[in-house]
Give the backbone structure.
Amino acid sequence: MELTELKSAWQELDRKVEVAAQLNVRLARELHLDRTRNSLTRFKRTLGIELATAIPPILIAGSYASAHWAQITAQPLGGLPVLMLFGLSLTTIILSIRQLVTLSEIDYSGSVTSIQRALANLQLSRTKWTLGTFCIVLTGWMAFLVLVAQMLIGYEVYRKFGGPWLIGNFAFGLAVSAIVFLCQKPILESPRFQKFMADPRLAEACDHLHNLEAFVREDSA
C-alpha cells in the first residue's frame, strides 16, 4: 500500500470515528433529554395538584369573608386567619401557573446549559417558596386553628386561650422565621437542601442534565 493510500485510509478511519462519536453524543443527548422530559412531566402533575388544592381554600376564605365581613371589620384580629389563608392560596395559584409556563417555554432543541439554567432558577424559586411557606405556617398556625375551629364548630379559640397564648405562639414563629431569614444564604446555596425542599422530580430532571453534561465533557476530552 502506497503512502497516499495509507493516508487516505487513516483519514477515512478518523472520519468514521468522529461520526461514531457524534452519534454517541446525539444518542446520549436524546436519552437524557427523554428522561428529563419524563421527570418534568411528573413534576407538572405535582404543580397541577398544587394548583387544584389551592382553589378550594381561596373560595372558602372568600365566602367566609363575605358572609362575616361586618364581624371581620369590627374585630380585625379575628379576620387575620381568613386573610392569611386567602393570601397563601392565591400566591400558590400564581406561582404554580408561573412554573407551568416556565416549563412549557423550555426549548429541548437548545443547549443543555440553557435548560439547566431554567431548571436551576425554577428549583431556587421553589426552594424559596417552600421555605417562606414554612415560616408563614409556623408563625400563623394558631391563626389557621382559630379559623378552622370557628368555621367548623363555631368555637372561638382565641377567647378560650386568651391573648398571651396567641402572642406567645406568634412570637415563637417570628423568632424561628428570623433565624431562617438570617441563615437563608447558606441554606439556599446548598444543592442537597434545594433537592429536598424543591421537588424530587425536579431534582431528578436536573440530575439527568448534569449526567448529560458530564458525558459530553468526557467524550470531548
